[in-house]
Design goal:
The chain is globular. Helix 2 packs across helix 5 and helix 4 crosses helix 5. A 3-stranded mixed beta sheet has the order 1-2-3, covered by helices on one side. It has 6 helices and 3 strands; from the N terminus they run H-E-H-H-H-H-H-E-E.
Length: about 130
């Protein structure tokens, strides 16, 4: 299995990518599973459970909010991931952001319409 953190760091440090887009999407089964854990104390076997586990805090954050729980949790998960990448202690990610060479943005993809909502964009580079 590919280590996502390593892939992102390689893209930034080696390839000089200027943009990281964290893209959540409508009807995400992993997010739906996380909401099942939150709502019904569901459990999922093996690697499925390990994949869903990091999404649970986002689902907990939006539980009880108006609107579709899975959609809200997907967007919250995007925002949590974006925040982690923006505040990473890894200089390889922070320095390019401070220098304006890298932006980390969050977006949500609507499968029905094909629309992408870039809802989590940085206002200023991190300090």
């Amino acid at each position: 299995m590919i280590n996502v953190d390593s892939s992102i760091e390689c893209g930034v440090a080696v390839l000089g990518v200027p943009l990281i887009v964290v893209l959540g999407h409508e009807s995400c089964r992993a997010v739906a599973a996380a909401t099942e854990i939150v709502n019904n104390n569901a459990s999922f076997p093996g690697s499925i459970g390990r994949m869903v586990e990091p999404i649970v805090p986002a689902a907990l954050l939006v539980r009880g909010q108006p609107g579709d729980f899975v959609r809200n949790a997907a967007r919250a998960n995007v925002s949590r991931t974006v925040a982690q990448l923006r505040t990473s202690v890894e200089p390889m990610l922070l320095e390019p952001q401070r220098e304006g060479r890298l932006k980390v943005v969050g977006a949500y993809y609507d499968l029905d319409t094909g629309a992408v909502d870039f809802f989590d964009e940085p206002s200023t580079p991190p300090r």
